[in-house]
Amino acid sequence: MQRLNCREQDRTTWADAGFDGPPVMWRRARSALRRSSRFSASKWRVLLGQTIARCVMQRKQSERAWGQHRAEAAQLMQSGQEDRVDEQVILCLREKARLAAFIVVQDYCEQVIDKLPLIEQEESKECPEEVREAVASLLFTASMCKDFVELEKMKLLFEAKFGSPFVASVIDNLRGVGSQIIELLSNQTPSWPVRAKYMAEIAKEFDIKWGPTRDH
Questions:
Q1: What is the CA 56 to chain-centroid distance, rounded?
Q2: Residue 107: which of 27, 14, 1, 178 has the closest Cα?
Q3: Which PANTHER family does the protein's record reference (predicted)?
Q4: Gap between the Cα atoms of 162 and 39, Å rounded
């Protein structure tokens, strides 16, 4: 096929050859096509929507578990089983943290969805500042919750869009990750003052006379 010279051919000639314009326009079209094959806003939107749906489901489960732990702690208070009360309160506080974490993750997903047009416009591997914390925090959550299948899939999309170095910097160094989600997913045992305060709240709710006999 004869090579066409854009300096010698007008637009009509290019159209006759099956192109919409000179080579520079064709290169832009090919570049846009490559970008669309790498990034699909609709794919991101669907998967983020599935992640939100999972968060809603997990929140309901956590709410039920949280209520059960509170009720069990109250029963143990009534029977004076202080050590077991403490165990239930720890479980209760951890479940409460999980519940809060799912709310935060859902919010981050919604932020990314809102910024999809901005992400789509970004041609480099740079993650836009406006959405960096949300993306980093979702990556962190995926690394902490391996059974969160939807986030594992989002991790692959983030890596394809922003590159492996960005993902590694988040997971290895917590770069850009929100402090709240780090705290909520830390799974650390709450301090005794926090547990004692929560015991007092449960005792008040269930109208139980309660006072731990010792510090833990």
A1: 13
A2: 178
A3: IST1 FAMILY MEMBER, REGULATOR OF VPS4 ACTIVITY IN THE MVB PATHWAY PROTEIN
A4: 10
Do 39 and 119 meet the contact criterion of CB atoms below 8 Å apart?
yes
The CA distance from 80 to 134, in Å, is 45
| Alpha-carbon gap, residue 103 to 55, rounded angstroms | 7
| Token code pair at residue 130 | 């406006």
Structure tokens at 205: 């709710």
pLDDT digits (tens, 9 = 90+) for 199-210: 999 999 999 998
- Provide the token pair at 32: 């846009």
Q: Residue 73 and residue 70: Cα distance in Å, rounded?
A: 5
Which amino acid is present at 124?
A: S
**DSSP single-letter state for residue 174:** -
**DSSP assignment, residue 148?**
-
Full-model pTM: 0.78
